[in-house]
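Protocol step 4 of 5: obtain the predicted structure for the target chain.
Materials: sequence only (see below). No template structures provided, no constraints applied. The aim of this step is simply to have a reference model before the mutagenesis design in step 5. Sequence pasted as it appears in the construct record:
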Amino acid sequence: MYWLDALSAVLTIEPLLAIAIGVPIGMIFGAIPGLSATMAVALCLPLTFTMAPVTALVLLLALYIGGVSGGLVSAIMIGIPGTPSSIATTFDGRPMALKGEGGRALGLAIFYSFVGGLFGIAVLILLAPPLARFALKFGTFEYFSVSVFALTLVAGLAGKSLLKGVLAALLGILIAATGFAPTDGIPRFTFGNPQFDAGYALLPVLLGMFAVNEILDYAARPPESRVSPPAEFTRPRFPGVRMVEFIASLPNVVRSAAIGIGVGLLPGIGSSASNLLAYAAARSSSKEPESFGTGNPAGIVSSETANNANVGSAMVPLMALGIPGDSVTAMLLGGLMIHGLQPGPLLFTNNGLIVHALFVALLIANLAMLLVAFFGIRFFVRILAVPKPYLLALVMVTCVIGAYATGNRMFDVYTLLAFGGLGLLLTRLGFPLPPFILGFILGPLIEVNLRSALMSSRGSFVPFLERPFSAMFLGLAAAYIVLVMVRKVRLMRRAA
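Step 4 output (structure tokens):
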């Protein structure tokens, strides 16, 4: 009964202007490495204090959608993800750009970002109450099992050497353990330096491994090997994909959207993991897994569908339970409370009109993202016209600014530089970077939930197998490992 009132509330000058301004600004923040959707929402949050609640929240949501989608631009154009949610987009988007198919890669990424956004918003609108009740049943046992299952997908990201992929993941877990232990507060790997007590922030680590690594690698090349990528692209027709291609990609789209939605429903994991997991699933289920990383469009489809599906689903625990799913929804939680709205089960009852207005705004903002991004391709491809030394210098500056802004401390800048060197070293030694990142993200979640679960069970591992959802995810993890090993053996036999 709220839908007509919500539609009339959003289709007024102020909310529409907020969408028209918020989506492009969010895309700019997402497209520039070092900035992010979180920063866009954080910087604009003080501007909403004097706005009406609907207008203010619409602006924040528009920034959110634009920021998540904007990362695909730099991921494809220069091989550096603008945001953590676009890490996997670089794996095949950049090779396509180097082949002269940058326009097609951008068209695919933008269209499937829109499709993924529709999936996530549909889940938020149609399934928020039952999915919130389902997520409420998850305890520390289930979160541990889910994290273990997610980490087993590292096998799909390991490339040619499973051993190197596993070692990279273990290194990520080890480095994530730096700082005070989550339950007993014992310092680990701090070397007596208080700067290490809080561990390493995620953004400087990601920027170092992917952005600074790329910059150092380019600087270390001989001048004759610094070949500029092609600057001319054939602009794809709107909406960027043909009907035949869309139908063929539906299994990948549905699977990736399901992964993005599932990750979004579980607080604390975020879109930085969902795009990697969806990419790993797409690669594992492909008949030609070796083509991933060389310019396979299915890699772009999986990554961009998952990270945008994550947007709507991450709003489910925020609005239904008052639990933010990631850093951006934590900012949105603050925005809701600033305007006197308390997220939780009563939000739908006491503020039904505003809730439905946000649903409408998400749909409009998602459509605005498609139009702004698609028709802005002609401007995005001009990035390649800038000489790469100047472009990478600008990227380096924004990375340093972004790293410093994470915690307003120089330690994060040093972290950025250190992990840039580590990323270059791992790359030169043939170790894949995605397993490292997945281990770094999931390591703390696995540790916290394992220790909490063992404390509640007095050291017994039996409840992990007694609880249905926990046993299900552990079983899926074991089945996936067996499947990957069988596939590796078959490939080795064929090669022999």
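Step 4 remarks: Strands lie at 179-180, 187-188. The two ends are 66 Å apart (CA to CA).
Proceed to step 5.
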